[in-house]
């Protein structure tokens, strides 16, 4: 995008906003080089929900800043005065099937499903590896997104472009 265009606002959604959506937010903000501004939220974060400690650890081990990351409700982004989103991407199957708020500006939408790295009874070392693999899977798809030319990111083309990356 040219320097005069504002960055594209992208919201990553997951049920609790503690793992996959947090990983995607942090990654895109690190990779987006001013062309993108990422946010994340959950459809139903639990009371006092925080980002999963292993998500934060995986990001830190990858050299990605975790500063300012917090779990939040998607209601924050449907409220008056919230940043207007250009693209909303669900990263878990549960959130993809839920009835979303009416988003201001009618942003493009896409679903990029990833397995939940926090599920199961594995030990912390095995779960950390699952978080690392999820981080790299999200990173591969985001690398394709950030490398797209401006015409593929124009509002009229954005939905098809983002949905096409779901199979990447």
Give a brief description.
The protein has 168 residues and is an alpha/beta fold. 40% of the residues lie in helices and 13% in strands. The chain has one domain: Rossmann fold (3-Layer(aba) Sandwich), CATH 3.40.50.2300.
* SS content category: alpha/beta
Number of domains: 1
Distance between the termini: 22 Å
Q: Which range does the strand content fall in? A: 5-15%
Shape: globular
**Mean pLDDT over the residues:** 88
Which spans have pLDDT < 50 for at least 5 consecutive residues?
A: none
CATH architecture: 3-Layer(aba) Sandwich
Return the CATH topology: Rossmann fold
**Total number of helices:** 7
Order of helices and strands: EHEHHEHEHHH
The radius of gyration computed from the alpha-carbon positions, rounded to a whole number of angstroms, is 15 Å
Helix residue percentage: 25-40%
Q: Quick one: how many beta strands?
A: 4
Largest sheet features: 4 strands, parallel
Overview of the molecule:
The protein is an alpha/beta fold and 168 residues long. The protein has one domain (8-160): Rossmann fold, CATH 3.40.50. 40% of the residues lie in helices and 13% in strands. The chain is built from seven helices and four strands; from the N terminus they run E-H-E-H-H-E-H-E-H-H-H. It has helices at 20-31, 53-61, 75-78, 93-96, 124-146, 150-153, 155-165, and strands spanning 8-14, 36-42, 87-90, 108-111. It has a four-stranded parallel sheet. Helix 1 (20-31) links the parallel strand 1 and strand 2 (36-42). Helix 1 crosses helix 5 (124-146) and helix 2 packs across helix 5. The longest helix is centred in the last third of the chain and has 23 residues, at 124-146. The mean pLDDT is 88. InterPro entries: Ptyr_pPase, Ptyr_pPase_sf. Residues 8-148 form the Phosphotyrosine protein phosphatase I domain.
